[in-house]
Design goal:
The protein has about 140 residues and is mostly beta strands. It has one helix and eight strands.
């Protein structure tokens, strides 16, 4: 008689796990294996090789579009030191088009170069990256 009770207990235990397969829309990480379209990223400002005077604001603006956007980031690195001076992350789900922006006020004592990397990913794990290099004069 104890065997049926053990089987029932094992069945209930095994079936109590939380769901979460690829079709589970409750997860924002939903992976779409049929999505082969990469996000389109346009950086409006700044332009590549643009120079800024010390103390000015470097405004990064642009747009990303895709059929199933997931997340993105803008990272600004001081090329002279290798340090990340500004990092902004976005979590945007299924919005077909999104305008992004980030500002950084540069304060330098010597000519300084920065690399700005804009990266967005969709739910198909397709990633588009754009890079812009700028300088700040003391």
């Amino acid at each position: 008689m104890k065997a049926p009770i053990i089987y029932c207990s094992l069945f209930l235990f095994a079936s109590c796990g939380k769901g979460g397969g690829a079709a589970d829309d409750s997860s924002h990480n939903y992976y779409d294996p049929n999505d082969y379209t990469y996000p389109t990223v346009v950086v409006n400002t700044p332009t590549d090789s643009q120079a800024f005077p010390n103390g000015s604001s470097i405004d990064v603006t642009g747009n990303v579009s895709d059929n199933s956007l997931y997340q993105g980031s803008i990272t600004m690195v001081n090329d002279n030191s290798g340090l990340v001076v500004k990092d902004q992350n976005y979590e945007i789900h299924y919005i077909p088009s999104y305008n992004f922006s980030m500002s950084y006020v540069a304060s330098v004592s010597a000519l300084t170069s920065y690399t700005i990397t804009v990266k967005f990913e969709d739910h198909g794990h397709n990633v588009t990256t754009k890079t812009v290099k700028v300088t700040v004069n003391p």
